[in-house]
């Protein structure tokens, strides 16, 4: 189906807005797996001499704890660039905005084609969708103890998977698979958001390219392939 280009493009522009919002929020370099986890106990190493330094006993302990050597939590392979500003709230606003924009677009398109969505269903989606997304976000926070930098992209990926199912689109399914891989697993912070935006924009263009076009007289011209 050719409708999926709009949610993908909307998500791409939303990700770019996150980048603009987050510029200058934090330093431009951070090695993700070892960020913010200071070690206070190295299981007895504090009383041993640190090789090649001449420090031993308590001095050795002070020297050893000057390094971040244990991960605080799971992190991306590479995390360079500033982090997303107010990540939990920022991603939540993005996901709710993407949902509402997609519903309005689908409803307007259905009306133009002469098969409008029932008013009760449309109102239910617009009023019930945002609280449902908020509840799901809080549930993931409580149950999985994930911070906003992981929870937000996870919720976005779930939305992409739902879109792929509704549209019966293998192409959107590929985007849903690449989105967390590029934006969270391999990269992190704002650079990861930029990479994820490039992925969804590429997906939107691919949907437009692969969508059959109607020619004068009602004839349908197939695209280079099906998605």
Structure explained in plain terms:
The chain is mainly alpha-helical and 227 residues long. It has a domain at 2-21 and 79-211. It has seven helices and two strands. Strand 1 and strand 2 (220-221) form a beta hairpin. It is globular. It starts with a helix and ends in a 6-residue tail after the last strand. Mean pLDDT is 74; it is low at 28-74 and 215-227.
Give keywords.
single chain; 227 residues; 60% helix; 2% strand
Q: Unreliable runs, pLDDT <50, ≥5 residues? A: 28-74, 215-227
Q: Given the helix and strand composition, which structural class is it?
A: mainly alpha
- The coarse silhouette is globular
Q: Please estimate the helix content.
A: 55-70%
Strand order of the largest sheet: 1-2
Query: What is the element string, with H for helices and E for strands?
Result: HHHHHHHEE
Overall number of strands: 2
Q: How confident is the prediction overall: mean pLDDT?
A: 74
Counting DSSP H or I runs of 4 or more residues, the number of helices is 7
Biggest sheet overview: 2 strands, antiparallel
C-alpha termini separation: 8 Å
Please report which band the strand proportion falls in: under 5%, 5-15%, 15-25%, 25-35%, 35-45% or over 45%. under 5%
What does the radius of gyration come to? 23 Å
């Amino acid at each position: 189906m050719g409708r999926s280009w709009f949610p993908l493009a909307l998500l791409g522009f939303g990700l770019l807005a996150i980048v603009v919002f987050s510029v200058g929020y934090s330093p431009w370099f951070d090695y993700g797996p070892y960020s913010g986890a200071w070690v206070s106990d190295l299981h007895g190493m504090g009383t041993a001499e640190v090789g090649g330094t001449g420090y031993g006993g308590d001095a050795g302990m002070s020297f050893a704890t000057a390094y971040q050597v244990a991960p605080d939590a799971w992190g991306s392979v590479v995390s360079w660039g500033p982090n997303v500003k107010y990540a939990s709230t920022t991603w939540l606003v993005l996901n709710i905005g993407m949902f509402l924009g997609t519903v309005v677009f689908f409803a307007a398109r259905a009306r133009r084609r002469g098969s409008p969505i029932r008013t009760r269903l449309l109102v239910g989606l617009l009023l019930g969708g945002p609280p449902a997304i908020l509840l799901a976000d809080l549930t993931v926070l409580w149950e999985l103890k994930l911070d906003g930098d992981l929870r937000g992209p996870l919720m976005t990926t779930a939305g992409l998977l739902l879109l792929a199912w509704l549209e019966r689109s293998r192409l959107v399914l590929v985007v849903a698979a690449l989105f967390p891989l590029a934006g969270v697993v391999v990269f992190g912070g704002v650079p990861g958001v930029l990479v994820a935006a490039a992925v969804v924009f590429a997906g939107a263009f691919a949907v437009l390219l692969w969508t059959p076009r109607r020619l004068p007289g009602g004839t349908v011209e197939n695209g280079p392939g099906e998605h």
